[in-house]
Design goal:
This protein is an all-alpha fold and 224 residues long. It has one domain. It has 9 helices and 2 strands. It has a two-stranded antiparallel ribbon with strand order 1-2.
Length: 224
C-alpha cells in the first residue's frame, strides 16, 4: 500500500473517531500516526484490528450509557494518553511483525474495557477480585459475571477479526479468548492492589494490561 493511501485512510479514520466523539483531537492525531506506520509496515488488516478496539470500546459505553455513571460516559471520548496506554504495545508488536503479541495486546485491552463498561450494568453488585467482598459499582478491581461474559465476547470479536483479516487459523481465536479473559482479570488485580491505593493510575494499568496480554500470548501461541 502506498504511503499516500495510508495517510488518507488514517486521517479518514481519525476524522470518523473525532466526529463521533470516540477520540479527542489529540487522541485522533496520535491514532492517525499509529495507523500510518502500521499500514506501511504491517498492512491494512492489522490497522483494522487495532482500530476496532477503539470503536468497540467507545460504543460499548455509548450504546449503554443510560445505565452508566456520569464519569464512565465522559470517558467514552478518549484522549491521547488513553490511545498511547492501550495502543502502544500493539503498535510496537505490529511494527515488529509479532502477530501473537499484537493480538494478545488488543484482546486484553478490548476485553478489559468492554468488561468494565458493560459490567456497570450488572444487577448484582461487583465483587472485589482479591477478597470477593461486595463493593460499589465502578470500584477498581470489582468483577461481575456480566462483565466477564462481555469481556470474553469482546475478545471473541478481536479474535474473529484477526482470523478473517490476518491469520485464518482457529487457534488465533482461541488465543484471543484466553488472553482476553486473563487480561481483564489481570487488570482487575492491578486495580484492586495498586490503583485503589493511588500507586498507579488508570493509564498505567491499561498499559500494563496490554503488555501482559502481549507477553502471555507470545508464550501461549506455540502451545496451541
Amino acid at each position: 500500500m502506498s504511503l499516500e493511501v495510508s495517510i488518507i485512510i488514517a486521517f479518514l479514520a481519525a476524522y470518523f473517531a473525532a466526529y463521533f466523539n470516540l477520540l479527542s483531537p489529540a487522541g485522533s492525531f496520535l491514532g492517525a500516526f499509529f495507523a500510518i506506520l502500521i499500514m506501511e509496515y504491517a498492512g491494512l488488516s492489522w490497522f483494522l484490528v487495532l482500530f476496532s478496539f477503539f470503536v468497540i470500546s467507545a460504543f460499548s459505553t455509548i450504546l449503554f450509557r443510560s445505565g452508566k455513571s456520569r464519569k464512565t460516559v465522559s470517558e467514552s471520548r478518549r484522549g491521547w494518553r488513553n490511545v498511547a496506554a492501550n495502543g502502544a504495545i500493539a503498535f510496537i508488536s505490529a511494527l515488529a511483525g509479532n502477530l501473537p503479541a499484537f493480538v494478545g495486546a488488543v484482546s486484553a485491552v478490548t476485553a478489559d474495557t468492554v468488561s468494565c463498561e458493560i459490567g456497570e450494568l450488572s444487577g448484582p453488585k461487583p465483587k472485589l477480585i482479591t477478597t470477593f467482598k461486595t463493593v460499589p459499582t465502578g470500584t477498581n478491581g470489582g468483577i461481575t459475571i456480566l462483565g466477564e461474559i462481555a469481556g470474553i465476547l469482546g475478545a471473541l470479536l478481536i479474535g474473529g477479526l484477526a482470523y478473517f483479516l490476518i491469520f485464518p487459523q482457529p487457534k488465533i481465536i482461541i488465543l484471543s479468548l484466553l488472553v482476553g479473559f486473563l487480561g481483564t482479570n489481570f487488570d482487575s488485580l492491578l486495580g484492586a492492589i495498586f490503583e485503589n491505593k493511588g500507586v498507579i493510575g488508570n493509564h498505567e494499568v491499561n498499559f500494563l494490561t496490554s503488555l501482559f496480554g502481549a507477553f502471555v500470548a507470545t508464550l501461549l501461541m506455540p502451545l496451541l
